Amino acid sequence: MLAFITATRVTFCLVHKLDRLARNRADDVAIHQALLSAGVTLVSATESIDQTPSGMLVHGIMSSIAEFYSRNLATEVTKGLTQKLAQGGTPMRAPVGYLNVRRTDEAGREVRTVEVDPERAPLVRWAFETYAKGETSVTGLLGDLTARGLTTVPSPKRPSKPLGKNTLYKLLTNPYYAGVIRYKGAVHPGAHEPLIEPALFDQVQSLLKARNAKMTRHVQHAHHLKGLLHCGSCGSRMLLDFATNPRGTTYAYFICSGRAAKRTTCTRRAVPVQVAERLVEDSYRDITISEDDYRHLAAEVDAAFDEQSTGRDQEFADLTTNRARLEAESDKLLAAHFADAIDLPTLKRHQDRLRAGLADIEQRLSEHDEHHSGARAFLHDSLRLLTDAHHAYAHSDDGNRRLANQAFYTRLEITEDEQLRPRLAEPFKTIITEIRGPTGGKNAKREHSTSTDVACSRKALWVGRAGLEPATQGL
């Protein structure tokens, strides 16, 4: 409108009411000033405003009322949404898998609620269960869901359509499906029927974070070592690659990305996936500790914490005593204020001082509890994991193997002579060094069979040790 009156000769600007023109004083002043500069007279169809002092007064009053109405309406809407959240209601459009419905209660009042979508809910539940297995990617899952017919809920303005990749990612990270409403960064318990268990939702989040942390991209084939292996010669990430011989048999390899992209002068040859899998699995045998080692190290951990507790127990007692003293002082100040012994500003000043002191004490007490119970339990759990590391890894699915590798190792390198050079993460590095010395004990080099089933390929066999064809007696 302002651009139009600047380019066109206009005498009057007619509005129904001032609150239709602007909803706050700042916009009203800016628009009115622009109209005056262009020689345009503002006229309201329902309000008596003009350039006289009384007309200007009415204009200012009506503009202030419009601003008050707008802000008060926003406050009331926020209050209503907050009350709905407190009752477990959904203050926004329900996600895919649910339907926003309107019903009439026994008193004849209209109630807006959320119900499970019988058509889409089973597909959403299947999506979480499938991704939690760790055998597919978001892109692969999207293709499967589209083939199964999952679409968005149609509206009067938007027809139903298949989900996009970003929409599916938001679906997988939305706690609403586990019974929790996330609104403006905060989470609230919902009264709607959850589609999945919280444990399943947490498992999916762990897989998503694990793959994002390693920047793993899944194009066609999934494998639990993708994104984890590095070339022992140049340090580049190793990629999963496939080669098919003239007879149609496909072989899987890990290749050096630096050599493949010609970013480095690396001459590292391809590593059969079978070899890489066996090397990583055998590395868990090398870090598995005996029950005797566990009991010995657990006793050392307890002794170390007990030794630290001698001084910390006194610190805990001092903090507790100081907290009681500050709380008693606060009570005395309040009693003195009620007896008119001190004025309100003095009371507030001392209460601020006491509040800061109590907050500092509470933080120190919390750190004390975390150090004693949390750290001790964490080290005991880490030691217990190492007693069964190889067996647990060997019997885990691909998703849990990926999580285990990221927990135990910071880096996995395969050398030119097909040995694994693992870099342990803490606290496992310190534990293994304590038991076996800086060298880490056993060598990771193992014997490998020549073929095995392909879990992620269209064909049957991995490649043998001697090139693209299976090994023969002449090689």
Automatic annotation (TrEMBL):
Pfam families: Recombinase, Resolvase, Zn_ribbon_recom
GO MF annotation: an example: DNA strand exchange activity
Record InterPro entries: DNA_bind_recomb_sf (IPR038109), DNA_bind_recombinase_dom (IPR011109), Resolv_N (IPR006119), Resolvase-like_N_sf (IPR036162), SSR_resolvase (IPR050639), Zn_ribbon_recom_dom (IPR025827)
Residues of the Recombinase domain: 95-214
Taxonomic superkingdom: Bacteria
Membrane-crossing segments per the record: none
Protein name per the record: Recombinase
